[in-house]
Amino acid sequence: MDELSTFEREILDFESRWWSHGKKSEAIVERFGLKPSTYYVRRSEIAARPEALAYAPVTVRRLRRSNRSKS
Questions:
Q1: What letter would DSSP give residue 24?
Q2: Residue 13's CB: how many other CB atoms inside 10 A?
Q3: Which residues contact 61 (CB under 8 A, 6 or more apart)?
Q4: Is pLDDT above 90 for 67?
Q5: How far is residue 1's CA from residue 29's CA, in Å, rounded to a whole number?
Q6: SS3 20
Q7: Span 18-62, pLDDT tens digits
Q8: Could you give the residue ranges of the DSSP H alpha helices within 1-71?
Q9: Sorting pLDDT into bands at 50, 70 and 90, what band is 11?
């Protein structure tokens, strides 16, 4: 089982409290230097990994539910 990178953990941590950063799309660009669309693709990839579920179970379950509802 691979471990999550620091960047991947930062994304999960951000997802657990993004509302404290103001407008989410602006915070994504400012904090990660990514376009929001790129961020969301990467976030979905991370959330699909078992390591992510082990690291942040509540956040990952919420993200997985959200991804399923948009499919």
A1: H
A2: 13
A3: 53
A4: no
A5: 30
A6: helix
A7: 887 779 999 999 999 999 999 999 999 999 999 999 999 999 999
A8: 6-17, 24-32, 36-47, 50-55, 57-70
A9: very high
